[in-house]
Design brief:
about 40% helix; binds adenosine-5'-triphosphate; binds magnesium ion; 5-stranded mixed β-sheet; 2 domains; 8-stranded mixed β-sheet; Rossmann fold; 15 helices; alpha+beta; BirA Bifunctional Protein, domain 2
């Protein structure tokens, strides 16, 4: 038997309503903040992600689905969407039409990681990007949007972590200080961190190795190397969050190692999903648009993992979605009359009613079982003696009442179904 690829998942019809629910909250919330949806291709030139995410990151160095297509071009399935959004923004000169562009997206991403609960090879993210402004209100806005979506779902066990990375010139000074400090502990660092010492020293803060964590606890902190402008930017982010009644903690270990990340970084973690606890992450990337060949414009954004959010909802048992129901099930009593049943079904479906009927020549009893399985609000019986008078019987499945309805009076049927 051919099975789905490791780390990918089918979303079956029985699970789809929670996806619709999450997607509807995402779209509503982002529209309220006046973000517009953008849909970019699933695959891009590998160079876009290599440059846009950074060669030194786990995503680019270990996780990308990269292959040569038939013409020998290196193609990568998108592992995230910021780079693609920025590419589209530059390619269509969108900054000429509007000086601040606010985008959102929803869709599948691909990363070849070790599959486990909350970690898949095809997974879904929603996210937002605001391109063209350095206003710290937008840094805070990303956190407010993400937090509001999670709390509108009903999630409780959330923690918002924020940090500031300042600007590259401040980080250069700091990185030298950090290296000075780490030189004295170098032999005790994990192999991974020893490598990062040269390639991306800030990322040693990301290490999960106990000994690295111990060493990093006493390391100098970037926040102490920020100048007034950066500190002010961070202060506005914090006061905006306070005004929006969002609790946060400043976590100085929240770093992104690449030069085009600036100022704010954040993460929202859930205490309800085990070790894959980050529901979303984001930050400001004032150097990225230029890095990808555009103008020197600032940007900020976030991305959230939808499988993890739904897992957190399940673990907190908060998704009380209404049961699926259909408006009408048509029971055909006499097989030779199924054309009449079908005609009624088509007519009502065209009037926006959810209607089902038998396609398997089932017995009346079996058709009634189906009607119950679909939670039909009404059942229509077609083909009894009433049909001689051009009538059918409508049964209300909630209160059990029945009445005859003339076949020529579809409006009455519609009216009854709407009750
Ligand atoms: P992690 O530290 O968990 O690997 P990340 O830093 O790689 O996360 P981002 O690139 O910031 O994650 O992506 C944003 C969000 O997308 C994450 O917070 C998470 O919820 C989700 N996510 C990332 N990778 C996966 C995956 N392989 N499967 C499911 N969700 C994922
Ligand atoms: Mg990851």
């Amino acid at each position: 038997m051919i099975k789905a690829i490791t780390g990918t998942k089918d979303i079956l019809p029985s699970e789809i309503s929670k996806w619709y629910f999450l997607e509807s909250i995402v779209k509503k919330k982002l529209s309220n903040f006046n973000y517009k949806e953008i849909r970019t291709p699933i695959f891009e030139n590998t160079t876009l992600f290599a440059r846009g995410i950074g060669e030194g990151t786990d995503i680019v160095s270990k996780e990308m689905y990269t292959f040569l297509d038939r013409s020998g071009e290196s193609i990568t399935l998108r592992p995230e969407l910021t780079a693609s959004v920025v590419r589209a923004f530059i390619e269509h000169s969108l900054e000429k039409k509007q000086s601040l562009n606010k985008f959102f997206y929803i869709g599948p991403m691909f990363r070849q990681e070790r599959p486990q609960a909350g970690r898949y090879r095809q997974f879904h993210q929603f996210g937002a990007e605001a391109l063209g402004s350095n206003d710290p209100l937008l840094d805070a806005e990303m956190i407010i949007i993400a937090y509001d979506i999670l709390s509108e779902l009903g999630l409780k066990n959330l923690e918002v972590k924020i940090n500031s990375l300042g600007v590259p010139s401040e980080r250069e000074v700091y990185k030298n200080e950090l290296k000075e400090y780490l030189k004295n502990h170098f032999s005790k660092l994990s192999e991974e961190s020893k490598k990062r010492f040269n390639t991306n020293v800030l990322r040693i803060f990301d290490s999960k190795d106990e000994r690295d964590i111990e060493i990093m606890k006493k390391a100098p902190l970037l926040i102490n190397y920020l100048n007034e402008e950066s500190l002010n930017h961070f202060e506005v982010v914090k006061s905006t969050l306070k005004n929006a009644k969002i609790n946060f903690v400043v976590d100085s270990s929240l770093v992104r190692g690449l030069d085009y990340y600036t100022h704010t970084t954040f993460e929202i973690v859930s205490g309800s999903v085990g070790s894959q606890s980050a529901l979303c992450g984001g930050g400001r990337y004032n150097g990225l648009i230029k890095e990808l060949g555009g103008s020197d414009l600032p940007g900020v954004g976030f991305a959230a993992g939808m499988e993890r959010i739904l897992l957190a909802c399940e673990n907190e048992n908060i998704l009380n979605l209404p049961e699926d129901k259909i408006d009408l099930y048509i029971v055909t009593l006499d097989k030779s009359k199924s054309d009449i049943s079908y005609k009624i079904a088509v007519e009502l479906r065209r009037k926006n009613k959810i209607v089902e009927l038998d396609y398997l020549s089932r017995s009346v009893k079996a058709q009634m079982r189906e009607a119950n399985k679909f939670n039909a609000k009404f059942v229509l019986f077609v083909g009894g003696e009433e049909l001689n008078n051009n009538e059918v019987i409508l049964k209300n499945m909630i209160d059990g009442t029945q009445e005859n309805i003339s076949l020529s009076d579809i409006d009455k049927l519609l009216y009854k179904l709407g009750e």
